[in-house]
Amino acid sequence: MNQTSLLARWSWRILIAAIYLFLLAPILIVFIVSFDTRQYLAFPPESYSLGSYALVFQNATFIGAFWRSLGIGIVVGFGAVAIGTLLSLALTRHRFRGEGAVNFLVIAPFIVPNIVLGVGLVLVLANFGLLDSYPGIILAHLGVTIPYTVRTVSMSLSSVDRRVEEAAMVHGASPLKVFWRITLPLIRPGLIAGWVIAFLISFDETTISLFLVSVKASTLPTEIYRYLEYSTDPQVAALSVILILISLVVVIALERLIGLRKAV
Questions:
Q1: Rounded mean pLDDT, 42-58
Q2: Please, what's the largest Cα pairwise distance for the chain?
Q3: Which long-range CB contacts under 8 A does 160-168 form with residues at least 24 apart?
Q4: What does the alpha-carbon distance between residue 179 and residue 170 come to, in Å, rounded to a whole number?
Q5: Tens of pLDDT, residues 128-148
Q6: Residues 77, 195: contact at Cβ < 8 Å?
Q7: Which of 88, 247, 89, 263 is closest to 193 using CA atoms?
Q8: 36 beta partners
Q9: Helix, strand or coil for residue 36?
């Protein structure tokens, strides 16, 4: 290997390392600040302790909002997978009038800013009395997460060998039985990936939630936002680290169960 090739390889490695460092720097700073003992956010920390983490687990507001966000995320995950699977089957297996409109509605949340979606959802849900309610926030989160489940399930459906399904029907299996016994197991990785993605998006959604909830159905992100309006202490940094660790655990569990490459 000549010097030019060696220099190019090391330059590329340094560039990649610099990009990763730039992307991870905010997380690393938050992690370090979460151990600070002062009552305000500052870097570098003056001294270190686990006091902020203890305060997080003693904060009834954060704990209550966490369980609400967890419940909403679980319901949204299952709802998004169920609706996304039906839409994926319709879009990948059938041709029908209005298919273009359905495709546009599926990709609309990708191209419309969340703040615009939030305003639109307020105008719609207010007419049905669903503001600051669990049904309202669940419907809003479904609208944001369904496109992701449609993409993951559609990719799984496209990899299914249709001849296996046709062979089952030739031997007398009904379409419903074919879907339940053959298609569903084959697309299970896409379903699991879709559920995890929908859950994480719902759990972390802030912009739309700020428009729709106030007290009754407040989620963890909205409570963190309100907390920061009046306090800026390491407790928020500690909570952020905990949420990052939860996300990592979910992703690692997905990798162990089915493999990220296979899922998405």
A1: 84
A2: 73
A3: 160/186, 160/187
A4: 14
A5: 888 888 888 999 999 889 988
A6: yes
A7: 263
A8: 48
A9: strand
Q: Quick: pLDDT tens for 76-85.
A: 999 999 999 9
Euclidean distance between CA atoms 253 and 69, whole angstroms: 20
* Residues 85, 250, 208, 217, Cα dihedral to 10°: 100
Instruction: Determine contact, residues 56/239, Cβ cutoff 8 Å.
Output: yes
CB 168 within 8 A of CB 178: yes
- For Cα atoms 70, 73, 76, give the angle at the middle one, nearest 5 degrees: 150
Helix, strand, coil % in the chain, rounded to nearest 5: 80, 0, 20
Mean pLDDT of 174-183: 81
Phi, psi of 48 (to 5 degrees): -120, 145
Q: At what angle do helices 220-230 and 60-93 cross, to 10 degrees?
A: 140
- 77 with 198: CB under 8 angstroms? yes
pLDDT over 80 at 251, yes or no: no
List the alpha helices (DSSP H) in 159-213: 162-170, 175-178, 184-186, 188-204, 207-212
Tokens at 243, concatenated: 């949420």
The DSSP call for residue 262 is H
In the 3-class helix/strand/coil scheme, how is 199-243 assigned residue by residue? HHHHHHCCHHHHHHCCCCCCCHHHHHHHHHHHCCCHHHHHHHHHH
pLDDT at position 263 over 60: no
User: 73: which residues sit within 8 A by CB, 6+ positions away?
Assistant: 141, 198, 199, 200, 202, 203
Q: For 201-219, what is each residue's pLDDT tens digit?
A: 999 888 888 888 877 778 8
